[in-house]
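[Automated response] Your request has been received and processed.

Submitted sequence:
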Amino acid sequence: MKKMIQKLTQGIRERKHLTEAVLTYLVPVRQPLLLISQVQRSGGTLLSQLLDAHPELHAHPHELKIGRPKKEDWPQLDPKESPGKLFGEIWEENTRFFLQNGYRKDIKTREQKETFRCLFLPSIMRRAFLADLGSKPSPAQRDVLDSYFTAYFNGWLDNRNLHGAKKYVSGFVPSLSSRPASMERYWQDYPDGRVIFIVRDPCSWYASASKYMPQKFGNLEDGLHQWTASTEAILESRGKKPQQTLLYTFEDLVTRTEEVMRSICRNTGLSYHPTVLEPTFNGMPIRAASSFSVDHVSHGVIKETAQRRHLLDDSTIRRIEEKTSSIYSDALNKLTPI
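Generated structure:
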């Protein structure tokens, strides 16, 4: 019993020392958010993974889930609330999952076979958040978000890209772009931010989306409504803030990857770095989160995903083109040059 108590006491001391070390050498994260958003199955995950190891980014490794009640609802916080309550309102529960089970892109279906060690410590994240936000006498919502990202990246103990001169935090939130009120709140918090939109050929998109999420996109008319609403919202945002929003096609992203990534770096002020040519998690190569089997591919960008329309029958293709050709043409005319 005495030895057991000694081991327990030693463990408590070590945890205390670890927490104190993180707080003592805390790296403040105050950079604007480089947001990626569009309807699901359009390349947002791929783009976030291409940016993952860029040395000038704090790259959020999964979908950013600080919104409530859904991730695509940009937060509405009361900075006057206690720091403890604020942390609970934007805390991403999947960080605990990653600690216990390792990181993988698809938590629910386990379709992605790769799993990576991911040492998030929620208790240290909370302590870091309380300490950082507590140092700000009259915080605004942006201050709360800065403290959260400070806590997130410092509490991720095996984060390989914490240090160095950073220009942005990067994060992917599917469908946030379709919610004008959420986009407006994002711009209120990040007037210095940048947003990257991706639009995918609607036939290829439907072939992928209806297979991956049949309950949401399986009905053709419902699926096309969501694709159209997303694209219309993207074009509206692009019109309002042409200097701060970028628009690319999924097809260019996977077939002209270097050209697109050079354009993104040029238009956001990032230095071009060769790491942006390979999808990674925490700097380690990661397989695609595709709707279709990728077992024959080791890693890297899969160019064949650019063409999925051949999986649809002719009548479905005709209906999709009837509903989307006009707005898709508008989107192609408003792309960011590459």
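Summary generated for your ticket: The mean pLDDT is 93. The radius of gyration is 21 Å.
If you did not submit this request, please reply to this message.
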